[in-house]
Write a structure and sequence with these properties.
single chain, 4 helices, Ribosomal Protein S5, domain 2, 128 residues
Length: 128
């Protein structure tokens, strides 16, 4: 098997994933994923598609992550891993879709409007 690559995005985060056959090692920006994502919740998010397909020990994954916060990066990585897995084996796409790992979350930060404090918040109105 050659190296399969995929891209995942969430908010401002972009994850570029390179999947090859191996022993289940995940490297994020040249660090172990457990070092990069210190909390168990974020580690769980990253491993969700691999655990669903029981492929956690089959592939080595190298990741380039950029932009956004740590939660957005974890969710971008989950999408990228899911895309890489179903490009390796297209039959897995239905189970990944049923779990919600194939759909890109389109929600991003709303832009700030002129004459306002933030996107929705207004300056305090003074009658007198």
């Amino acid at each position: 098997m050659e190296v399969v690559n995929a891209i995942g995005r969430r908010k401002e985060a972009i994850a570029r994933v390179y999947v090859s056959e191996g022993k289940g090692k995940i490297q994020v920006n040249n660090k172990d994923y457990k070092e990069y994502f210190p909390t168990g919740t974020l580690q769980y998010i990253v491993l969700q598609p691999l655990q669903l397909l029981e492929a956690a020990e089959k592939y080595d994954i190298k990741v380039n992550l950029a932009g956004g916060g740590i939660k957005g990066q974890a969710e971008a990585l989950r999408l990228a891993i899911a895309r890489a897995l179903y490009s390796i084996n297209p039959e897995d796409k239905t189970s990944l879709r049923a779990a919600g790992f194939v759909t890109r979350d389109p929600r991003t930060v709303e832009r700030k409007k002129p004459g306002q404090k933030k996107a929705r918040k207004k300056f305090q109105f003074s009658k007198r």
